[in-house]
UniProtKB/TrEMBL annotation:
GO terms for biological process: GPI anchor biosynthetic process. This is Mannosyltransferase PIG-V. It comes from the Bacteria. The lineage of its organism: Bacteria, Bacillati, Actinomycetota, Actinomycetes, Micrococcales. Signal peptide: none annotated. Pathway: Glycolipid biosynthesis; glycosylphosphatidylinositol-anchor biosynthesis. The keyword Membrane applies.
């Protein structure tokens, strides 16, 4: 054996200096990674993602021609204020109209009541406090809430997944095809923050602290009724499993209170709009105005918008077939082992919000943005550990950003694909 060992050493030789150096660097990097706090890892991911997204946004802005929101080649801040960012600007500086605007035919037209007050209220307050302009504050607020969401999302995922998988879920959230929404003048990142906090408190069963979070979340983006359904499913689940997971009277009272507050919060904006304008249907009529360009003015009948949309996009029954296939595929995914590992409460939220969209929203290009609150599903997609798989998913996400900005955000003068 000794002779064999001598012969092997003679053939291979001692480790080279370069090999020893590389091995030392690998060990040093592994140790440093393990010693790095979780929040620092998330911060590095977030900053890297914003560098990539900002570079893509600036590339498109440099090629943007004159449009309804800016001149040719706008600055980043001007580019970030496109589309609904202008509606939030109107609300931040002048509030909501007392009277609903109407078309020549007498229908309610597009107006500020379609947008919840949470985000523009924060922006307006900071504009007053700092003296900075709307564009700057709007982007700063969005980025700040996006960073907060990334940090909270790691903590949420780490409740149900290993730390490495939780971090990669954050990577996917930060690099997602619609992640440019995290740094524009929209309410999405603020809503994502309060939604993530709500889900975290729900999984921790901290019901009383959940109450104000649900109220703010519901007045930032429409989500109160969906969260009420998710909370109701949570209460039923806990009651059914109470023998192995005790569900005491205090927890019953607290969780049922969250359900009731969520229902009230879900209807609050409709009631506020009705009180100010004098029309009980002010909010729903305003929302219906946005789909009038596609299918004309319609009544709001729950569970029919997607059927109408399917027939509009693909007439002749093909759209209905595709809609059924999408629902079946989504349902199958929700029962996959990857999604089940996220636990019942996250699944309840995703299913409830998906049902809410199916009930009231008309499918068009904004639907991709409206699907952003199901982002906890990134935790399911993050679970395979192959580095080839993970790199491929990140590259697909970045390609998706480019495609989405080109289709929905960048304006080519023909407005039919709003973000």
């Amino acid at each position: 054996m000794a002779a064999d060992g001598l012969r092997f050493d003679a053939l291979v030789g001692p480790p080279s200096t370069e090999r020893r150096r590389r091995s030392g660097l690998a060990v040093w990097a592994a140790v440093r990674y393990r010693l790095t706090p979780w929040w620092a890892r998330v911060l590095v991911v977030f900053v890297a993602s914003r560098v990539v997204t900002t570079a893509i946004m600036l590339w498109f802005a440099s090629r943007q021609q004159y449009n309804a929101w800016s001149g040719a080649h706008p600055s980043y801040l001007e580019f970030a204020k496109f589309w609904d960012g202008n509606w939030y600007y109107i609300i931040a500086v002048s509030g909501y109209p007392d009277e609903l605007p109407v078309t020549a035919e007498g229908h309610v037209s597009e107006n500020a009541w379609a947008f919840m007050p949470g985000y523009p209220a924060v922006v307006r307050g900071l504009m007053f406090a700092t003296g900075l302009d709307y564009r700057t504050i709007a982007v700063v607020v969005s980025v700040a809430f996006a960073l907060g969401t990334a940090l909270l999302f790691y903590r949420l995922m780490n409740l149900v997944l290993p730390s490495g998988t939780a971090l990669f879920a954050v990577v996917l959230y930060c690099f997602a095809p619609l992640s440019p929404m995290l740094q524009v003048a929209y309410a999405e990142s603020m809503h994502a923050f309060f939604l993530t906090l709500a889900l975290y408190l729900l999984l921790k069963r901290d019901y009383w602290r959940l109450l104000p979070v649900v109220v703010v979340m519901s007045l930032t983006r429409p989500s109160g009724l969906a969260f009420a359904l998710a909370m109701g499913l949570h209460v039923v689940h806990r009651w059914v499993t109470r023998e192995r997971d005790p569900f005491g009277r205090r927890e019953v009272a607290a969780s049922v209170t969250v359900v009731l507050v969520s229902v009230i919060s879900g209807f609050a904006w409709l009631l506020i709009a009705a009180a100010v304008t004098g029309s009980w249907t002010a909010y729903t009529d305003t929302e219906l105005a946005w789909r009038a360009a596609y299918i004309g003015y319609q009544e709001l009948i729950p569970l029919t918008p997607w059927i109408l949309g399917a027939n509009w996009w693909l007439p002749g029954g093909l759209g209905i077939v595709l809609l059924v296939l999408l629902v079946v595929a989504f349902t199958a995914f929700m029962f996959s082992p990857w999604v089940k590992r996220l636990g019942p409460d996250i699944r309840y939220w995703v299913a409830s919000y998906a049902l809410y969209l199916l009930a009231v929203f008309f499918p068009q290009s904004s639907t991709f943005r409206l699907l952003m609150p199901v982002f906890p599903l990134w935790g399911a997609i993050a679970q395979p550990r192959s580095w080839i798989y993970r790199l491929a998913v990140v590259l697909l996400c970045i390609a998706g950003q480019i495609g989405w900005i080109h289709i929905a955000w960048w304006s080519d003068g023909y407005d039919w694909t709003p973000p």
